[in-house]
Design a protein that fits this description.
Radius of gyration: 14 Å
Strand content: 35-45%
Order of helices and strands: EHEEHEH
CATH topology: Alpha-Beta Plaits
Number of strands: 4
CATH class: Alpha Beta
CATH architecture: 2-Layer Sandwich
C-alpha cells in the first residue's frame, strides 16, 4: 500500500482547530480533516496534572506530506508544544483510499 497517514493534533479552541484544518486542506497538505469535540484531556505539564477541554483534529494525508504538514501545524498552532502524531494507515476501504489517492500531493513550495 502506498503511504497514507492520519495525523492528530488538539487545540483549546474550536476556532483554532477550524483555522488549522481549513489551511491544511486549502494548501493540499491534507485531503480531509475531521474535528471532534469537545474532548477532555488529562496530562502532566511542567510538573502538574492538568485537565483541559480540547478539540481533536484527525488529519488524513500522504506520508510524503508529513514534514510540510508538521511545519504548517506548528506555524499556525497556539500551543507551546502541540501534539502532532502521525500513524500509518495500514488498511482502509478501497473507495476511500482511491479518493485519498486522487487528491494531489502538496508541492514543496508550502
Amino acid at each position: 500500500m502506498e503511504g497514507f497517514i492520519q495525523v492528530t493534533t488538539t487545540t483549546e479552541k474550536k476556532e483554532d482547530a477550524e483555522r488549522i484544518a481549513r489551511s491544511l486542506v486549502e494548501t493540499r497538505l491534507a485531503a480531509c480533516v475531521q474535528i471532534v469535540g469537545p474532548i477532555t484531556s488529562i496530562y502532566r505539564w511542567k510538573g502538574r496534572i492538568e485537565t483541559a477541554c480540547e478539540w481533536l483534529c484527525l488529519i488524513k494525508s500522504r506520508e510524503e506530506n508529513y514534514e510540510a504538514l508538521e511545519q504548517a501545524i506548528r506555524s499556525r498552532h497556539p500551543y507551546e508544544t502541540p501534539e502532532i502524531i502521525a500513524v500509518p494507515v495500514t488498511a482502509g476501504s478501497r473507495d476511500y483510499l482511491d479518493w485519498l489517492r486522487g487528491e494531489p500531493a502538496a508541492s514543496c513550495a508550502e
